[in-house]
Amino acid sequence: MGRRKKIVQECEKLMDKPDQIRNIAIAAHVDHGKTTLTDNLLAGAGMISQDTAGQQLAMDTEEDEQERGITIDAANVSMTHEYEGTNHLVNLIDTPGHVDFGGDVTRAMRAVDGALVVVDAVEGAMPQTETVLRQALREGVKPALFINKVDRLISELQEGPEEMQERLQKVIGDVNDLIRGMTDDMDDVDDWTVSIQDGTVGMGSALYKWGISMPSMQRTGMDFGEIIDLEQNDERQELHERTPLSDVVLDMVCEHFPDPLDAQPRRIPRVWRGDAESDLAIDMREVDPEGEVVLMVTDIGIDPHAGEIAAGRVFSGTIEKGQNLYVSGTAGTNRVQSVGIYMGGEREEVDRVPAGNIAAVTGLKDAIAGSTVSSVEMTPFESIEHISEPVITKS
Ligand code: GDP
User: Fold this and answer.
1) What number of CA atoms fall less than 13 Å from residue 162's CA on the CB side?
2) Rounded distance between C-alpha atoms, residue 56 and residue 97, angstroms
3) Ligand 1 centre distance from Cα of residue 183 (Å)
4) Distance of CA 166 to CAs 121, 161, 169, Å?
5) Of all atoms in ligand 1, which is nearest to the CA of residue 156?
6) pLDDT greater than 90 at residue 301
7) 8-27 pLDDT, tens per residue?
8) Alpha-carbon distance 194 to 359, whole Å?
9) Which of these, 247, 259, 330, 377, could form a disulfide with 366 (CB 3.0-4.6 Å)?
10) Residue 362, CA distances (Å) to 198, 270, 307 in order
């Protein structure tokens, strides 16, 4: 069996175990390293070769993308990761990095429960960092922080440990100030801020594929000084092997981002104004695969063979081929032609996608991004508010 088929089978097994699922987005100001980081995760999950990960330039032409059989930009990807002896299904929604795609970023946030915010260590928090944080918090999505390009502080800027720590603390402080400013109406502000001690901050180099976090340093026994030494001496391969970025980030995702069982009861009242006492509300809060089908469409893609594909989060029930589903704002029902999950740029058909997962569905010809698709007529989800971008002064 091919490696890809094996991964699909593994994903299918995990789709029915919501406590082992993490739906996440990676969001960043343009050029802070989101694509390079995503590449690392895919390589770590065995989906692309470790040698090509991080060489983001290799993706710049279609030919290369085809050769590698994967398109990462703005793609939805499912991967598996073993954390503390338990396999997890990580559904990653990539968000477009460019300012023009603000709307898409917001939509992606509706589908996920955690957002990894990437910030360039040299540039620090930038306008789009603020925008993506705002989008995440508005949707009840938990943020975590990855400070990228730390190699530049060491090798290029030649900063010593103290200077570096000061700079990193400032990035964390700035991000937390932004978060506090956005959550001051919530009573649990500290649940949303990030911290090194809690393990919700990671840092490293997506380009050279190494990363660290408090838990990873405890696990590998490596300290900051040793990392600086290795980076300074150009021993990046050793750094990568001893503390691979993908493990650090995926461990952080599994440990700190909520699973759908934890997230949905919190998120549903925030994004859905229907009757909180109804059976449907209970189905969604409980992530019930036996409940009525509820899919929130976050993206419509075009597949040259299958036509339009509606991708989105299944909040309740199980989507299967042949179902007739209502599409909000339209009359009548659409018939599901196929259901699948995303593996890189490609869709893999599966028999069914239960609640708590991201599904790629064909046949929903009336659906648009933002549609609520369901087996019973229902109050649609809140429309997704687009947050306008602050003026970007530097790209
Ligand atoms: P995106 O716009 O956020 O997706 O950023 P990219 O992943 O495309 O990265 C933007 C540029 O920064 C590219 O030239 C990358 O090679 C470079 N880059 C990304 N991560 C790192 C890193 O950790 N260290 C250094 N030095 N450069 C990086």
Assistant:
1) 0
2) 14
3) 30
4) 11, 9, 5
5) 26
6) no
7) 888 889 999 999 999 999 98
8) 30
9) 330
10) 41, 28, 8
Identify the residues whose C-beta falls under 6 Å from ligand 1. 28, 30-36, 56, 97, 148-149, 151-152, 205-207
Backbone CA torsion sign across 373, 375, 377, 381: negative
Q: Which among 312, 24, 237 has a CA at the least distance from the CA of 146?
A: 24
Beta strands in 206-273 (DSSP E): 210-213
Residue nearest to atom 10 of ligand 1 (CA): 31
Mean of pLDDT values over 56-65: 38
Distance 41 CA to ligand 1 centre (A): 14
CA dihedral defined by 82, 84, 90, 95, rounded to 10 degrees? -110
Q: Whose CA is nearest to atom 17 of ligand 1?
A: 33
Q: Which two tokens stand for residue 109?
A: 């946030």
Q: Which atom of ligand 1 is nearest to the CA of 208?
A: 23
SS3 32: coil
Nearest CA to ligand 1 atom 21: 207
* Closest approach atom of ligand 1 to CA 28: 3
207, 236 in Cβ contact below 8 A? no
Q: Please state, in angstroms and rounded to a whole number, the distance separating the CA atoms of residues 331 and 329.
A: 7
Of ligand 1's listed atoms, the one at least distance from the Cα of 57 is 16
CA-based angle 293:296:297, to the nearest 5?
120
Nearest to 82 by CA among 45, 109, 54, 121: 45
The rounded Å distance from CA 57 to ligand 1 centre is: 10
The rounded distance, in Å, linking the Cα atoms of 223 and 268 is 41
What is the whole-number distance in angstroms between the Cα of residue 134 and the centre of ligand 1? 23
Confidence of residue 389 (pLDDT cuts 50, 70, 90): low
CA dist 26 and 143 (Å) reads: 10
For the chain, the average pLDDT equals 86
Q: How far is CA 220 from CA 57, 234, 300, in A?
A: 31, 20, 42
